[in-house]
Design goal:
Layout: E1 8-10, H1 29-44, H2 52-62, E2 68-75, E3 78-84, H3 87-99, H4 103-110, E4 112-114, H5 126-136, E5 140-145, E6 153-161, H6 169-219, H7 223-236, H8 241-251
Helix pairs in contact: 1-2, 1-6, 3-5, 6-7, 6-8, 7-8
Amino acid sequence: MGAFASIRLDLRTSWGASMGSWLTDAYTVDEVVEAYLAMELLLRAPGVTQDEKGMLAAIIEHLGGADSASITELRNGVFLTLAASDQAARDGDALQYELESGPCLDAITERTVFAPIDLTSDPRWPDFGLKVANTVGFHSMLSLRLMTDVPDSIYGLNIYAREKGAFDKQAVLFALLVGTYASSVVLSSESRSVILNLEKAIQSNRQIGMAIGVVMATHRLTPERSFELLRLASMNHNRKLRDVADSVIRTGSLTPSGDGSR
C-alpha cells in the first residue's frame, strides 16, 4: 500500500466494526495481483475508449455491484459533474452538491477513500444518505480523489450501487488501481481541451492580424489605429472581434453592410 501513502482510507461501516473488520485488514500479495489483473482486463475490454464516459462504462461493467459512476470536479470552490455514466449518477452527485455533504465531496477535500455500505444509516452523511436512497435508489458507494495535477481543479471518482454493502475489500483495491487510469483519462481530456483552445486563439489572432493588414492598406493607417477601428466596429455592431476580422478579410469593409452574408 506504499503507493497510496498520501491517501487516507476511511472504510468504517455503519453496521459496526465487527461486521466491517475485513475492510481494515492488510492486503495480501495475491489480492493485489488479483485487483491488478482485473484492471488489466478492464483496459483491454472491447469498446473501452479514452474518454471519461467510456471509462465509467467500463468500470461499471467490470466492478461487481456497481450500477452507476461519475467524475466530480471541484473548480474554484464549485463542485460539478464532469462526466457520468447515466442520469442516476448525475442525480446522486447533484444531491451532494445541493446538501454540501456526501462521500464524494469529502473524498475530494480530505484526500480520503470512503466506502459506506449503508447510506441510509451512516451517521457521516445522514441527510444525503436518506435522500439518495429514497429518490435515486443508491444504498452504497465508493468515492476517492483522483491523482491529477490540473491548476484550480480537483477531481473525484464516484461509484454508486443500489444494493447495501455492494463493495467488498477487493472492490476498494480495484477502485484505487482504476483511479490511476481515471486520472490519466482526465488529464488527457484536459490537455486536449487546452490544445483546442490554444488552436482557436492562434487562429483568431491570425485573422485579427490579417484584418489589421487589410485596414492598414485600405486606409493607410498605423497598426495601432487599424486595430482600434476593428475594436470600435466590434463594439458598435455588437459583434465578436474575430467575426469582424473575418468579415474585413473577406470584404475589405469594416461595416456589416459590406459583408456579403448580410
